[in-house]
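User: Predict the complex with coenzyme A.
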Amino acid sequence: MKIAKEELEFLVLGRESIPAMLGMQEEAFACMENTDVLRRNTADSLSCCFSPPSVSVGVFYRGEMIAFGILYAPGKDAENLAYDVPDIPNVELSANLKLAIVRPAYRGNGIQRMLIGELERHAVAAGMRYLCSTVSPLNRYSRDNLLAAGYRIVKRLEKYGGLQRDLFSKRIG
Ligand SMILES: CC(C)(COP(=O)(O)OP(=O)(O)OC[C@H]1O[C@@H](n2cnc3c(N)ncnc32)[C@H](O)[C@@H]1OP(=O)(O)O)[C@@H](O)C(=O)NCCC(=O)NCCS
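Assistant: Here is the predicted structure with coenzyme A placed in the model:
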């Protein structure tokens, strides 16, 4: 379904949105050929994504959430993807683009790219200078959107119990 950009609303989400986010994640898995493409989140793994500088943003169309994106700032925690990027001197100035999901019926409106822009604005406002993300080499839609948004591929990693992931990064500040 094609939607005019002006009809989309971007709103910061709270923890009460976790069940809806998990529901959208399951819907995404249900129409995926290879489920290795995405790491499955739980209520627990999402719960850290609502306290600044981390932020979760929902995309609403006519009052219904049709997509969301997550910026996660792990600080010095091992989850910080910047540890694998040689030219990021201080990992605390880098956050992860952790997840973006667009409901299948609404794909093809460039919503992931809009979400990346929105999360970048939050990250800059929070004093972040870099963003990193990992994407499966099989996930061409996400890869193309990150490349179009100015991210570069740093290297290929084995993550999450042996799954191949390309590590992307971008300087934002
Ligand atoms: C990756 C994702 C967020 C992209 O959604 P999006 O922003 O709507 O995608 P785009 O607007 O860039 O789509 C570009 C084209 O690819 C198509 N497309 C996008 N995702 C697709 C998918 N998963 N399967 C098949 N086609 C897809 C769109 O329909 C569109 O086609 P068109 O040009 O013929 O209209 C979405 O596919 C998704 O939610 N995937 C599951 C979760 C995931 O992989 N997230 C990223 C890793 S964190």
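Residues 28, 37-38, 99-102, 107-112, 135, 139, 141-142, 145 surround coenzyme A (CB under 6 Å).
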